[in-house]
Design a protein that fits this description.
binds S-adenosylmethionine, 7 helices, globular, about 20% strand, about 270 residues
């Protein structure tokens, strides 16, 4: 929290009272940040601490961030609090309205955030090399059906891993094009289980990002808390000899510089 915050803001309005950035690859936030206008009710949103850590690590004031699957706006709220410009998109107009409402607060540092309805697979209206950071959080296939099947372009309608991954690759391609060289793209993604076996969704998604040209900077394990279904699944898991999945992957990719020599990061390129 900046000591220069104007007196018409309380700490809760402008940011966390205590803040210590993460410095390892395991992140755990038992208490979801509840400052400013963050909305704990949007199912499947990420904790504000995820957005704050990534934005602070990879951007400076005045930079521009893209979140093409913005949900209830966690990335954009944090962007505003940290004086970064941002563009948010979501296929669901209800999510866009929620984000717009969440951005209706005053902040003493100037910045601009915009949010609109759009398909993350089509970034054709955005310029090449124009964003300093991408931070986003796709559906985990159809674990949560965000639009309840009502919006055909909603990726959370897709229950097939190959189909989901090929749509994700379209998104990855667009993100690679619009990100500036040597800048970062962070994706939070989890796994699932089918027929009592683990479905490695996150690693499949990672491969698609590598395939379009990104290199892997980090694989951060984010511990999951407050999962709605934990108690319901607990006894079934014991009976059927599997463990409940309680972590997600926060992959941080980097777009290489033009002509960059990449042989030293070959393990980060899926080779
Ligand atoms: C996991 S949620 C994002 C939550 C967000 N990080 C937050 O904290 O509120 C995934 C979002 O992706 C959106 N979505 C699904 N398919 C999409 C598509 N094709 N283009 C853009 N957004 C899409 C859903 O509507 C949903 O809001």
């Amino acid at each position: 929290m900046s000591a220069t915050a104007k007196s018409n803001c309380t700490y809760k309005e402008v940011g966390p009272l205590f803040w210590e950035p993460e410095y390892t690859t395991v992140w755990s936030f038992p208490e979801r940040g509840n400052w400013a206008t963050h909305n704990p009710k949007y199912r499947g949103n990420f904790a504000p601490q995820v957005a704050r850590n990534i934005i602070e690590m990879y951007t400076d004031r005045g930079d521009i961030i893209l979140d093409p699957m913005v949900g209830a706006g966690t990335t954009l709220i944090e962007a505003k609090l940290l004086a970064r410009n941002a563009l948010g998109m979501d296929i669901n107009p209800e999510a866009v309205e929620l984000t717009k409402a969440a951005l209706r607060f005053r902040h003493h540092l100037p910045s601009h955030q915009e949010v609109k309805v759009g398909d993350a697979r089509d970034l054709s209206l955005l310029d090449d090399n124009s964003f300093d950071l991408v931070l986003t959080h796709p559906p985990y296939m159809n674990i949560i059906k965000y639009s309840g099947g009502k919006i055909p372009e909603d990726l959370s309608n897709i229950g097939s891993l190959p189909k989901f991954c090929s749509e994700i690759e379209k998104i990855a391609k667009g993100l690679f094009r619009v990100l500036k060289p040597d800048k970062y793209c962070a994706i939070l993604i989890g796994d699932t289980r089918k027929a009592k076996h683990f479905v490695p969704l996150a690693f499949n998604v990672m491969q698609r990002f590598l395939r379009v040209g990104f290199v892997l900077k980090e694989d951060i394990i984010k511990v999951q808390h407050h999962c709605k279904s934990t108690e319901r699944w607990r006894w079934k898991a014991k009976r059927d000899k599997f463990y409940l999945i309680m972590h997600e992957h926060l992959f941080v990719f980097r777009k290489p510089k033009l002509g960059e020599e990449l042989s030293r990061v070959k393990w980060s390129r899926g080779s």
